[in-house]
Automatic annotation (TrEMBL):
Keywords: DNA-binding, Transcription, Transcription regulation. It comes from Streptomyces boluensis. Residues 29-48 bind DNA. The lineage of its organism: Bacteria, Bacillati, Actinomycetota, Actinomycetes, Kitasatosporales. One of its GO terms (molecular function) is DNA-binding transcription factor activity. This is TetR/AcrR family transcriptional regulator. Gene3D superfamilies: Tetracycline Repressor, domain 2. GO terms for biological process: negative regulation of DNA-templated transcription.
Length: 176
């Protein structure tokens, strides 16, 4: 039996399918991705370097949702704010992917390219080289934490009956 004229599988389909699984279940396995695509697991491995390669495809899929052109805005803080808001919106659409992506090194070229722009923006704004990575890391933590918060229950702190928390309750009541 010969190969089909049109490829049944490509990196974009693998990434999209893995992201669907993560959105549904919070994780994926390469065999699950293969089953959903109707191919053998080995076929997926032909296109990616193991599970880590699929994780990078997930990262690329989400980063495609970001508006990188916002990094061209000036002044630098407006550019960074716009990009961070776009970043948060992209990850808020896929909150179950956050923990998976935050626990593996960023390697995807498209993603590295965006962080390169952010680093350049900060350096051009006058930040010292040794200040840039702490700023980027802090921004990541704030943006991704905020994206997770967007999918959290409306009330996060529930004092069960018999638990005394009058100040917490008053603060919650005051803020609606």
């Amino acid at each position: 039996m010969g190969r089909p004229r049109k490829a049944l599988l490509d990196r974009a389909r693998i990434g999209a399918t893995a992201l669907e699984l993560v959105d549904e279940k919070g994780d994926f396995t390469v065999p699950e991705v293969a089953r959903r695509l109707g191919v053998q697991t080995a076929s997926v491995y032909h296109h990616v370097d193991g599970r880590a390669g699929v994780v990078e495809l997930l990262r690329e899929r989400i980063v495609e949702l970001l508006d990188a052109s916002l990094l061209d805005a000036r002044p630098w803080d407006a550019a960074l704010e716009g990009w961070a808001r776009s970043y948060r919106a992209a990850f808020a659409a896929h909150p179950r992917a956050i923990s998976l992506l935050m626990t593996s090194p960023v390697r995807a070229p498209r993603v590295i390219e965006q962080y390169e722009w952010v680093a350049g923006l900060l350096l051009d704004a006058g930040f010292a080289a040794d200040e840039v990575m702490p700023i980027i890391t802090g921004l990541d933590n704030i943006v991704l934490g905020s994206a997770l918060d967007m999918s959290a229950p409306e009330v996060m702190w529930v004092a069960e009956e018999g638990v005394e928390a009058p100040r917490l309750t008053a603060a919650q009541t005051a803020t609606g």
